Amino acid sequence: MLSRTFIRAPLFSRGLATHAGPSTALPAVLHLKTGQSFSGRSFGAPRSVFGETVFSTSITSYTESMTDPSYRGQILVFTTPLIGNYGVPLNRAPVDGRDVGVLLESNGVQCTGVVVADVAEKFSHHSAVESLASWCRRFNVPGITGVDTRAITRLLRDQGTTLGRLAVGADVSAPMPSPEQYWNPSAENLVDQISTKAPYELNPTGDVKIAVLDFGAKANILRALVRRNAAVTVLPWNYNFNAVRDKFDGLFLSNGPGDPSKCMDAAVILRKTIAEWDKPIFGICMGHQIIGMAIGLDAYRMTFGNRGHNQPVLALASSGSIKAGRVYVTSQNHQYALKLQDPFPQGWEPSFINCNDSSVEGIKSTEESGKKVWGVQFHPESCGGPLDTIEMFTDFVTECRAHKALVAAEDEVMVNASAKATPFFETIRAQPAAVAAMA
One GO molecular-function annotation for this sequence (predicted)? Predict the structure, then answer.
């Protein structure tokens, strides 16, 4: 009979996770303008803030969400219970033909405050260099944990996005703010605050030149263009593009925060561009709304917007890699949308519609218009999120290259035609001299 040998495995403590460090342990409370309050404890910066309270259903990529410029002025509620478990990476990357200088979506935390059910006390990831609490503290952003984010989300979903105040420390005992004390970030031009103040270039040796109007561009949008070997020039949101448009092979309009009506200057400039320029134009999120306003559509404020990585959209028209009738899962972050109207402006058609709320998710120029213009409300570059529509960037850059090649071919034909016609023109120019000699 075989004897059995039992080997007792040693007990290992979880030594691979890093402790987040000492907590401020200050009390905190989230006040909503609609009258509700949620008490918890603070992490991050020990200060109080006002903002617009919104929720995101994204399960991963809290670092990318918090660095997205579209969250500027907002108190971000994560519906996922545990946040911070994989820490925060070093936010640096090279500036070359593959990257744009940052690993995340911008060079700092963009949201005004953070609300989570349970902030991780330990984090573990091979690229992590600090905890969520430490990162927030470094960028002076307060957070609150230990609150029922399900209840907060239900309130925001049912009554709509609400202004709020995140009070920390001694401010917790102060009375709830009166309605007129709440700060509304949408009343300000947030795009003007976040947009680049001067043009700059990325990947200048790329084989196709694309201008980007920066309404608050995510780094992954620029990265997606650079990695397709585009030479990218980033311009301020209200830059007079028509003065320099002939230098470029295409125009891209980025995402951005706030109310699109604050950017009518850009829509007016773009209206002239679309009317007079026949090169490809592509807009995402805020850029999509600017295109819509430029062609005569209205933008409206949604009840609670769409923020998350799981929004299904139905393609109504085929274009490049997009096939009509297919449902694509997309990443989104927006409070405003374009109104669906009948009839649609001449030369234009809706290209995507949201499967949940039937909002307009995309518009495009028709084949008959002779234009190459697209706009989508979602984020094809989706960092994080699904990559169902990432090839829309390839489609856009390919169209820019095709148009560049067509223009070059047309120029060559004109040069050749001019060369062949030279003797004829020289004969015409010589006729007056011959007549004068005969006289």
Answer: carbamoyl-phosphate synthase (glutamine-hydrolyzing) activity
Closest C-alpha among 277, 262, 261, 284 to residue 214 = 284
The 10s digit of each residue's pLDDT in 293-351 is: 999 999 999 999 999 999 999 999 999 999 999 999 999 999 999 999 999 999 999 99
Backbone angles phi, psi at 75, to 5 degrees: -90, 110
Cα(390)–Cα(408) distance, rounded to whole angstroms?
28
Residues of the chain with CATH 3.50.30.20: 20-186
Q: Supply the pLDDT for residue 412.
A: 77
Tokens of 419: 């060369």
- The 8-class DSSP code of residue 153 comes to H
The tokens describing 386, both together, are 């699904």
What CATH architecture does domain 20-186 belong to?
3-Layer(bba) Sandwich (3.50)
pLDDT at 354 over 60: yes
Is 367 marked active-site? no
Q: What is the CA radius of gyration of the chain?
A: 27
Q: Which of 111, 136, 263, 285 is catalytic?
A: 285
**For domain 191-400, is the CATH number 3.40.50.720?**
no
The answer to whether the CB of 18 falls within 8 A of the CB of 131 is yes
381 noted as active-site residue: yes
| 404 pLDDT more than 90 | yes
Ranges for all domains in the chain classified under CATH 3.40.50.880: 191-400
Q: Are 348 and 319 in contact (CB under 8 A)?
A: no
Contact status, residue 361 vs residue 328, Cβ threshold 8 Å: no
- The single residue of 130, 309, 379, 399 carrying the catalytic annotation is 379
CA 318 – CA 395 distance, rounded (Å)? 12
- Catalytically annotated residue among 381, 383, 399, 400: 381
Does the annotation count 111 as an active-site position? no
Max Cα–Cα distance, the chain, nearest Å:
134
pTM value? 0.90
At 413 the pLDDT is 82
Q: Kindly report the length of the chain.
A: 439
